[in-house]
Structures are given as structure tokens and as C-alpha cells.
Specification:
Blueprint (H helix, E strand, L loop, with lengths): L4 E6 L6 H11 L2 H8 L4 H22 L8 E3 L5 E3 L9 E8 L2 E8 L3 E7 L9 H7 L6 H8 L4 H22 L10 E4 L19 E4 L2 E2 L4 E8 L2 E7 L9 E2 L2 H6 L11 H8 L14
Parallel strand pairs: 1-12
Antiparallel strand pairs: 1-5, 2-3, 4-5, 6-11, 7-8, 8-9, 10-11
Enzyme class: transferase
GO biological process, one term: lysine biosynthetic process via aminoadipic acid
Keywords: Transferase
Length: 289
């Protein structure tokens, strides 16, 4: 079994967006380009497009399929899946997330996988951290809130909040159950001896344990790491953790890996994108792709 895929793309480092946009939009399925064209803000449209490219490039790398052979659909709850998951006989499962400056991809063969990335900085527009936590109180159990509130600094409290959020989102996205499942039914127990901080020497495999309705889920493992100092990421795997590190890829490299049909390029896509306003607001917004 091949090692899992762990890729990330930085939106701020996409310097050739003007030249790449129409090409990139021509490589994805028409229904996905329509979804992207509905976004109000530049950042949301850009990160969503990158997520679609990550899914297609990851599939091409693992299966050897051409872009025209790759077809994704979505479950009732919006999770993208390969219409032909047996491409190459590998049973590939892929998941993407985007938030802040990054879009990320996690992929596994023969195992369900989910990923979530979060910007750990304080959301704009909140009067106080206590107020923010109060609005989110139903998302975590009492034990989890005790761990979140235990540090003395606001920065560390926020990081723990986002750590738990990433863990829950990664599992929900791997299973495809959706937020309606009830986040308090999921409880994560952290190992205080397991390192969780930004740094290249920090292992991504964690000893974090998940319980659902009070029953420990021993078949699930979790990778936890940082893309940079303010973006944390969690990967849920229905199987054994590989301790895989995320590798940076660029949009031009993704485009190179997918064959472009110049007859399918629509110049109007960029005209719409450049008219969108910028958002520049930090908020809880994890996307299935």
C-alpha cells in the first residue's frame, strides 16, 4: 500500500493566478465551476478552486488516470467522492479542506480519511474570548471545555479550541455524517505527553483518542500538525496513522499534472473572479471541497 497523500497549497503564494485562473477552471467539472462562480469573495472562490485541483491531481497521481477520466460526485451531505473509486484498483479516498491561507488534501488507499485546517488566530468581530466560547459552548463536552480553558494565555486557549475543532471536523468529514450528528457526541481525549506545537521536528501522529457516545473508537487514528505557526491541521484515518508530513505544492505544478484542452478554456471566468471583493475576515469555515 502506497503512503498517504498529504499536500497543501498557499493562496498568498499563488503569484500566477491571473494567467492560471481560466486554465484551472477549464480542468474541473462544469457543475464545480458553477459552484465556484457563485462565491461572493475572491478568497473563497480561489481556495475552493484549489481544492478541486488538489482532488484531481491527487487522483491522477495515485491512479494514473487522465483528467478527462476523473469524475467526482458529492454525497447528500456534500462530501466529494470518486464516481469510479476503483480507478487503478486502489480504493482511493480523498478529502480537502480550506481556511485562512491554505487548502489541504489528505488521501488514503483502502481507508476512509478526512482533513480539516484552521487559522488559529482570534476571529474578528468578537467582543471577548469568553463571548466567543459561549457562542460555541454546544460544540464541545465539559471535559473538552476544561482542557480548552486550562491554559493561562488567550493564544493557547484559542489554539486548543481550534485543535478540538479540527479533530471533530476531520472525523465528521471522513465519515460524511455532517454537523447534524451533534458534536457533543464526539469526545476527544488528548495525551498531555504528546507534543503538539509548530516545528519541523514535531511528529504528526498523535495519541489522541476519540469516543462516540462514550464508546472508544479504537479503529480511528489522528494526525495533528501545523502548516505554519497559525494554521493547524488534523487528519482522521480509519486505520493506522502513517505520521505523514504535509508537503507544499503549487497551483502551476497541479496544472502541469493535468492535461489542458485549450478548446475548453473560457476567458470569462477570470473576468468574474477579478470583480469579486476581498473578504479578509477570519471565521470558522471548513469546507468539504
Amino acid at each position: 500500500m502506497a503512503a498517504g497523500l498529504r499536500w497543501y497549497v498557499s493562496l498568498s503564494r499563488w503569484k500566477t493566478i491571473t494567467e492560471d485562473w481560466n486554465v484551472a477552471m477549464s480542468l474541473i467539472q462544469p457543475e464545480e465551476s458553477e459552484r465556484i462562480n457563485q462565491f461572493v469573495f475572491k478568497e473563497d472562490a480561489s481556495l475552493s478552486l484549489i481544492g478541486r485541483l488538489l482532488l484531481r491531481a491527487g487522483t491522477a497521481k495515485r491512479t494514473g488516470a487522465t483528467n478527462n477520466e476523473i469524475n467526482f460526485d458529492r454525497t447528500e451531505r456534500g462530501k466529494p467522492y470518486l464516481v469510479e473509486p476503483s480507478l487503478g484498483g486502489c480504493g482511493l479516498d480523498l478529502n480537502v479542506s480550506h481556511q485562512g491561507d491554505y487548502a489541504v488534501l489528505a488521501g488514503e488507499e483502502g481507508m476512509r480519511v478526512g482533513v480539516d485546517v484552521m487559522d488559529c488566530t482570534r476571529p474578528r468581530g468578537i467582543a471577548s474570548l469568553d463571548q466567543f466560547f459561549t457562542t460555541m459552548r454546544r460544540q464541545f463536552t465539559e471535559r473538552e471545555w476544561h482542557q480548552i480553558r486550562s491554559p493561562s494565555s488567550e493564544e493557547d486557549k484559542l489554539k486548543l479550541f481550534y485543535r478540538f475543532w479540527c479533530l471533530k471536523e476531520s472525523y465528521i468529514k471522513a465519515t460524511g455524517i455532517g454537523l447534524s450528528h451533534g458534536l457533543q457526541r464526539l469526545e476527544f481525549t488528548l495525551d498531555p505527553s504528546s507534543p503538539w506545537k509548530y516545528g519541523a521536528d514535531t511528529p504528526s501522529c498523535s495519541s489522541t483518542v476519540l469516543s462516540v457516545d462514550g464508546i472508544e473508537q479504537t479503529q480511528w487514528s489522528f494526525e495533528e500538525s501545523f502548516i505554519d505557526r497559525k494554521h493547524c491541521v488534523a487528519v482522521a484515518i480509519e486505520g493506522t496513522c502513517h505520521s505523514g508530513s504535509f508537503i507544499e505544492v503549487t497551483v502551476p505544478k497541479l496544472l502541469e499534472s493535468l492535461a489542458v484542452d485549450i478548446n475548453m478554456i473560457d476567458p470569462n471566468h477570470w473576468e468574474l473572479q477579478k470583480k469579486r471583493p476581498s473578504k479578509n475576515v477570519s471565521c470558522l469555515n471548513s469546507d468539504n471541497g
